[in-house]
Amino acid sequence: MESLTGWGRTAPTLARVERPTTVEEATLAVLAAGPRGAVARGLARSYGDAAQNAGGRVLDMTGLSRILDIDLPAGTVTAEAGVSLHQLMKVLLPLGWFVPVTPGTRYVTLGGAIGSDIHGKNHHVSGSFSRHVSSFDLLTADGSVRTVTRESDSDLFHATVGGMGLTGVVTTATVRLLPVRTSLMSVDTERAADLDELLARLTTTDHRYRYSVAWIDLLAKGGSMGRAVLTRGDHAEPGQLSPAQRRDPLAFRPATLPAAPRLLPGGLLRPVTVGLFNELWYRRAPRERRGEIQKISTFFHPLDGVPEWNRVYGRNGFLQYQFVIGLDQERTLRRIVERISRSQCPSFLAVLKRFGQGDPGWLSFPAEGWTLALDIPTGMPGLGGLLNELDDEVAGAGGRVYLAKDSRLRPESLAGMYPRLDDFRRLRAELDPAGLFTSDLARRLRL
Amino acid sequence: MKNALGDHQSLLVLGGSSEIARSTARLMVGRRTRTVHLAGRPSPELDASAAELRALGAEVTVLDFDAADVDSHAAVLGKAFTEGDIDVVLLAFGVLGDQAEDERDPVAAARVAQVNYVGAVSASLVCTQQLRGQGHGALVVLSSVAGERARRSNYIYGSSKAGLDVFAQGLGDSLRGSGVQVLVVRPGFVHTRMTAGLKPAPLATTPDAVAAAVLDGLGRNAHTVWAPGALRFVMSGLRHLPRPVFRRLPI
Ligand SMILES: Cc1cc2nc3c(=O)[nH]c(=O)nc-3n(C[C@H](O)[C@H](O)[C@H](O)COP(=O)(O)OP(=O)(O)OC[C@H]3O[C@@H](n4cnc5c(N)ncnc54)[C@H](O)[C@@H]3O)c2cc1C
Known about the structure:
- In chain A, 26% of the residues lie in helices and 24% in strands.
- With 447 residues, chain A is an alpha+beta fold.
- In chain B, strands 3-2-1-4-5-6-7 form a seven-stranded parallel beta sheet, sandwiched between helices.
- Flavin-adenine dinucleotide binds next to strand 3, helix 3 and strand 10 of chain A.
């Protein structure tokens, strides 16, 4: 038995971890699961308890990490579910292909990307990960493996993408790739002095960029509440590179720094220190800079440069709160930002993004609108009450919180946020009547 | 399941009409706990306790449980676990007895030991086996400062709590690495029905204060809490007093 947590390092529970390296081993592990069931786990980058299963089995899928086929003319890759996006980038970039959607870390697996139906900075252009998945193989509770496409098995497809591993174990998947001519990014950076300016800029100019995100200072108050730095960009064209860069335009060399120290003094995570940091960070950003050439790792995955940065939050761990509400809900968004800013929540750099059209996954998170994500140490006084209030605001505005980041939502808030929850439950009851696939998240939220 | 903020969703109370248990349950339901199983001997207090928690929004089931009837424990308590995981088990039953009476009536004295110690041993083991299978959860055992040192005035009760306390410490150690926490709670004099009419000792406390200490201990993943906290130091002084001196203290 091993003690497991998610990325936020909260609420550990014990499970028997299986490490299959073949589909046969995975099948045997599922069939032998016993009354506490089983769930798949990738690189455990979900913040909460989605990839934990107290008292039961957890299938660590990272041993199933072979790339099975790259169809260059078609621009697709077929790989085992435990392959990481990092591995895929290493292999695919030199060939002139990029993953269609990447989250803020490359260290997620293909299975985890499907299980959470992840989104990236290109959501307004490309939608979520599932939009680019043409098929996957799913190991179900009866021990059989089915090939699922949205055409052949629409319900199962849409229950599985974003389904948090609760319909079965994805063993392999085929994904359509994005052609790129360089492994570098051309990035525009600008500052927005307050929330109104930020929303206006994102609304009027986001469509010019494939990738867009805003880092927002949630500790700033008064006139500068919601001040932010926008970073938006595109894959660079060879013509934009320096002669040195042009020699090897598709090189992929992410930088790594030493790991974060094990425990930082808790005193650092106070509004004053965090506020100071945010201030420096805001001032450091250029008022406006165009066409800066950055590495993929710098633009998409700045935090991956510091291995185990989650330890910075100390023993009590932390959580991430991410929600989405409709574009017409700007007033609610403003109220929420105000509420967070007033609470002086010690959050380093929160992220605001404008989502495009959502995809039809039943528990898929993204929907057209504004999404805000912020990290918060769990030791913050009054945090539970604050987040419950925010949940109510979000649900009241027809929005939802992201299950891959959740570690504390009340089960009664769920149905209002995910209108297809009943369909999801019905399909699971049919496909897996004994409830073999389950997780701490599923138990906590009664999924 | 416990969430990232340490809030619990389900609670099983053994000794559901105990006032400390009631306070603790009320406090937990006020936060996040929605499922409560109240185990105890059928009584108006037990029903009142259930009604009170239902009014606060909890789903409550009442289980007919007799601490002294150890043969029934596995069946009765096992049932609570079949409906879903239990995050916290609160072992709160116990009888104070009547020291003077019990000294005259050995059968009555044995009954105090039977409920407070023997029943608790069996019930704790039944519950922790289940918690171990779940891979998470906590057992909270209500011990007492009375178990810290034999006192002329209540050594029968005190010795039963002493046995329970040592048992629970060992149980906690045996469960290290299992995902299960055992929290021993040592309240001092608590104003309750059980102590009504008795002369309050110094540092007397209330069920609500003990409940707060329980939740604090759970949150810190502690193995022991004293209520009030100052008792820890008082008792560590008293524990080492020579017997002749201790005997003469007015306690
Ligand atoms: C720094 C950081 C930045 C992030 N940024 C973003 C972001 O920008 N956008 C975004 O969408 N998310 C983001 N995330 C969240 C992350 O993308 C998701 O949690 C993702 O699911 C993690 O993948 P994983 O392989 O680590 O999966 P895990 O965390 O191990 O598992 C996640 C879920 O997927 C299921 N799962 C895993 N493998 C399989 C499989 N083979 N078959 C079926 N189900 C499976 C699990 O059961 C679980 O429910 C971020 C996380 C971090 C730590």
